Amino acid sequence: MKAWKVIYNDWIPEKQPTREALTTLGNGYFAARGAAEESDAGGPHYPGTYLACGYNRMTSKVSGREVENEDLVNWANWLSLKFRIEDGDWFDLEKVEIIKYRNELDLKSGILKRTVGFVDQEGRESLLISRRLVHMKFSHLAAIEWKITPQNWSGKIEVQSAIDGTVTNSGVDRYSDLRGDHLKPLFTKQVDDKCIMLVVKTKQSKIRMAQSARTTVFSDDEPISADSEITEKEGYIAQYLTFNAEQNKTVRVEKIVGLHTSRDNAISEPALEACNAVQRAGNFEDLLTSHTREWKQLWYRCDLELEEGEYTQMILRLHIFHILQTASANTIDLDVGIPARGWHGEAYRGHIFWDELFVFPFLNFQLPELARSLLMYRYRRLPEARRAARNAGFKGAMFPWQSGSNGREESQELHLNPKSGEWDRDDTYLQRHVGAAIAYNIHQYFEATRDLEFMSFYGAEMLLEIARFWSSIAEWNPDRERFEIRGVVGPDEFHTQYPDSDKPGLNNNAYTNVMAVWVLQKALNMVEQLSETRKVELFEELDIDESELERWEKITRKMYVPFIKKGIISQFERYDDLQEMDWDKYRKKYDDVQRMDRILKAEGDTPNRYKVGKQADVLMLFYLFSVEQLKEIFNRLGYEFEPSSIPENVDYYLKRSSHGSTLSRLVYSWVMSRSDRERSWKAFQKALLSDFEDVQGGTTSEGIHLGAMAGTVDIVQRCYTGLEIRDGVLWINPRLPRELQSLKMRIRYRGHWIHFLFNHKIVEVTFEAGWSPKVEIGFREKVYTFGEGDRKTFSL
Amino acid sequence: MKAWKVIYNDWIPEKQPTREALTTLGNGYFAARGAAEESDAGGPHYPGTYLACGYNRMTSKVSGREVENEDLVNWANWLSLKFRIEDGDWFDLEKVEIIKYRNELDLKSGILKRTVGFVDQEGRESLLISRRLVHMKFSHLAAIEWKITPQNWSGKIEVQSAIDGTVTNSGVDRYSDLRGDHLKPLFTKQVDDKCIMLVVKTKQSKIRMAQSARTTVFSDDEPISADSEITEKEGYIAQYLTFNAEQNKTVRVEKIVGLHTSRDNAISEPALEACNAVQRAGNFEDLLTSHTREWKQLWYRCDLELEEGEYTQMILRLHIFHILQTASANTIDLDVGIPARGWHGEAYRGHIFWDELFVFPFLNFQLPELARSLLMYRYRRLPEARRAARNAGFKGAMFPWQSGSNGREESQELHLNPKSGEWDRDDTYLQRHVGAAIAYNIHQYFEATRDLEFMSFYGAEMLLEIARFWSSIAEWNPDRERFEIRGVVGPDEFHTQYPDSDKPGLNNNAYTNVMAVWVLQKALNMVEQLSETRKVELFEELDIDESELERWEKITRKMYVPFIKKGIISQFERYDDLQEMDWDKYRKKYDDVQRMDRILKAEGDTPNRYKVGKQADVLMLFYLFSVEQLKEIFNRLGYEFEPSSIPENVDYYLKRSSHGSTLSRLVYSWVMSRSDRERSWKAFQKALLSDFEDVQGGTTSEGIHLGAMAGTVDIVQRCYTGLEIRDGVLWINPRLPRELQSLKMRIRYRGHWIHFLFNHKIVEVTFEAGWSPKVEIGFREKVYTFGEGDRKTFSL
């Protein structure tokens, strides 16, 4: 059971423990809609879960310039619950003597439990056990339960149960100059003797949000009468319940909370629905039962069961847990994407980046309906991406680097460097590669599901428009007789321009150019397969003709890819002209050189001058494509590509990376998994710790790094198993690390549930009964047909 | 081309022409979100398109009782456009001499064109040609164009272009006691010198809606300068444009309108988006081009091309046109269902009934993504249906007869009888059969698409819950040794209780009982095919066990079905005890006996005493099921069923029906299509005219009868072709009416586009290229496999 729980027993008031930051609860809906901030103990600031509600026209002045920020809302303290004994001080962890402290995140059931034994200044000893959940099935509900047991006293207890709409965003220090007040209070209301309600509206996006809370006190599972009093002020309502407690007799306080917004489907009006939700909900125990059942079912689908030291298993589950808190069945019907930091903290203000690239592989195989809905999030923003392309002088669709609520580019133009206190120019918006990631996700989703209706009606249109963008940004260089893509930035954000140039952007970023080729090729393949009806529709509507396709075809043969020397791909053109970093010098000077960009800029220098990477984007190619695929792409382009050059590239770039991105180690681990298993496992272990140990020193509490979390899950699910869909066949090619004895998992593939058992000797494949057509599974050059109920064991 | 246009040249001021009522434009989005009321000419009231926004807690007093009504909104007069010459009266069709009048609904392009030649009181002759569209691709846009040509004068023209948020609901006389003011004005704004804006909120549901309008005047396609003035009052903004016009020189006024609501996806804030929409839109001609292209593509998919007199073809296209105005690609992403009267009028206040049963067959085969989204509309309301079942003492899900915005029962409890002026008690809410219709739609959608993910994750859950409801409402009668369903109402709403009873509800309505059996059988089949993973999930969650399944199985063998005599199914138990109607007596006394219920009630009598049907619900069984299927159901139940009894049943009930429902003739036409082709064709022709000729005398202007419209389309698509999916095979069994020479159509079936040509000699089947797996087509006992590009001609 240990691998199902994240436990820590240490209470360190002066420090905000990182693992606390990981224990926020959401359920997708609640996460993307509301907040989960528990202020019961005046203790550490628990990062909330957030709601992105459109960019904020109410701009803030930053360093003399106007900066817009999203209506990202850390919603009301729904778990605001306080108590005091005999009119004393309100309970505060910092003002009592802690004699016992245990915090336990139960991943299996999605419950956070805290046990605090304490003695107050009057010498009264009490035991407080709190449990809370954000309901995984009934997505509009959350609940907290307190058990208070007086150990050496009897007397009056007063509980304050509030809904607080005056919360502001203050979770990220360097955003302190941005506006943090996103809520406009509308009204508060006492619904009945148990229920209170708060209704607010977001300031810019005008989303109406209603929250209702029902608080009840129990003794021996019977409700006990308590004196009730209500306090209301603007944007805040609290209910005070006073009752008597006896020594050694546990009283239980339950607070059930309902949340609805004006963006919910199937509602009449949010306030009415929030009230209904709470009044119709059962008590804490009922909710716990249904919540636990839902988690059990989710784990049955999504768990990766390892035979290994329990530490890896536990963190892996924590990562799966956080994926499911950000996106789940509860978000399928919401128009939300995958934010880089989950809905877990304020960093990046809820914007949607390319990070979903790392989350899709998991979702495609576990919750394909969810993956579909995330692609629809992009599809809905296709018109805005088209407009962005047109405005930048291109055709097709140019998806933004940081996507705001309506799909417009929301990348900051300035970035606060905490090292120097300066606001530096930020040209990372030139990362045009995000569209390629979306195309990749569409392709992968389709391969895993064969969802023809999706592909025909939405996927194809996106794919064509993204392909067109690449075709239009690629320019023919007659001297070189190659197409080029100039003036962009790759995933490695340390490099945004040439040191000898005053214009931002780099030329021929290898990752970008190869991805562009891949997208064009996939678009061409797709056109061949598309039905005539749909093809005619799309070609008419998008004004695509055969000459356009000919150009695509030509680009897939003639795109320029820079090389440093034979086999070593150049991150971008003229990368080799940059200076080598004197790593020793900086390692001596600074404890942590992960963010070399900030260090160099603070010294008046710039990473643009050096061969130093936040992450080595060349290696992303080895992460995304198998050797077979890369060979095909490069050969078609007329470049030599030998599988043996992969480790050379890895070595070259590993030396030159500061791992300033949490994604960096992940990619290393993946690409080395077969060539250098020891180093790969080490990198994997480090990647696992990104958030768990907060390796960046403080960024975890600003929000988890969901891409990195999902990436570790993906390494186990796809890299160690060699799971790959190629030419309509699901290939397996397992190579478990020595440290991993076995791996059990289930995947959903083209309408089948397939159970896998991998160990160092065999692979066992079992198909559940079901009504899907047979599919093919490939193992060591041979292809086998599987249908319902089939089982086969392959020897390694 | 004639069959593509609905044209009428007659201007009848004192009467509201029915065909005018058919010319409202929507596009799904605009329909379900906004309104399309043109008041340019002070002429006939054009029914608008509406928005259902939750039930209205602001109840109205009706006949001493409180009645709730939906926030159904006839939204702002977005096409409010007036003009006057030289400070004269504002143009009013009733105050000028009409010398030419032509109204033309171009079905092919979705454009309404009106030509009016007139002479005003000062003898000035002018020609006014207006065209309008609600954009089928850019769903947030609509546009109107006016061409004004002075024939014998030159002078000043003043145009008033307004957005009017003060509109109220007044389209249905008998609702006049209900509140009609659903909008609360928020603000008006002049955005720039061309754009004005109105923002309102619905009163109960608090939906924020923003509308922006850009009005420009052109001469020779060049914008001309006009003096502009703005008038604002609460909920209303108008722009006055004054310019000079010359004799014989046409001036053109364009008004482009954008509409967004707070329920839209991918937005920042509705007002901002509505502004953006209008400012980014091209001019009228641009919009016309993209709008026409979209319609062309839609028709390519959806048209049924007949070789026949053009009248049938034209009305059939009008019906397809109206289906697509109510639901289209633009509604897929909205949480909206299929309202009985489209979004076309105020009747039934936007509630969702079982009528979608008649619309699904068409959508399944033409726009399966849309069909899926309509099923999701029901899925989202499953929790409310569960609650309704529990509250009524049943298990599972009991979907409401009239479904309100959040899925709660919204059936009226009183119904105004226009014959008597009395508010009669209305027990039609006891129509529990709506859940069976939903199950039927799920099944049909799945058969047409094999959408496994939908079925597994949503469809199965609904199907199980609906099955459970039937199981729990069915009671074992030990005397009869049969299960019974007591206290319900069938689709024939004339009968709601026994004349000798004071309790509403009838026992053993044959349609309901057979449907219950069918649902239980389908649910049992589905359980067998469901993957183990999903089965365990659902059984745990819904608390279903094997004993429940055994009960279902038993009901499918032991349900009671009443018979009048051998072969003649009894509409409900003891139907035969009712009195025969003296039709002659009433036909002499009343012009129109379609609504015998109102006639009898006004006479102090009740249809409950007589063998008289609004529609013969027994015949619905022959409509929904093939002979083979019915045989199986009845044999399993231990009842004899001979195909030869079908015409006998038809005869029996045809004599006893007043066709008070527009669905009635439809069903007759279908069930007689093979046994009595002449009568079937006649009934079909009558069904075609339901709205076109407003056979109910005034109900068309309260909203089209979408179920009846779709049903006529379905008769052509499925009944004349014998298209039926049975055991995974798509069977065709064509029998065109003699009057129909040939029929061409395309369907989307399991990822394929299939082109059909039917005539009296052959059937030609052509598969488009595509990437879907092969499927089977059955013809005369033989099954053929078809894959991409295959073509085959069958001789008849």
Describe the protein's architecture and organization.
Two copies of one chain form a homodimer. The first copy, chain A, is of the alpha+beta class and 796 residues long. Among the domains of chain A are: 2-301, Glycoside hydrolase, family 65, N-terminal domain (Beta-galactosidase, Chain A, domain 5); 742-795. Helices cover 32% and strands 26% of the residues of chain A. Chain A has 21 helices and 32 strands. In chain A, the strands form eight sheets. In chain A, strands 1, 5, 6, 7, 8, 10, 11, 12, 13 and 16 form a ten-stranded antiparallel sheet that branches. In chain A, strands 17-27-28-29-32 form a five-stranded antiparallel sheet. A four-stranded antiparallel sheet of chain A has the order 4-9-15-14, with no helix packed on it. In chain A, strand 5 (97-106) and strand 6 (111-119) form a beta hairpin. Chain A is globular. The two termini of chain A are 30 Å apart. Residues 33-49 and 51-70 of chain A have low confidence and may be disordered. The interface between A and B is large, with 67 and 68 residues.
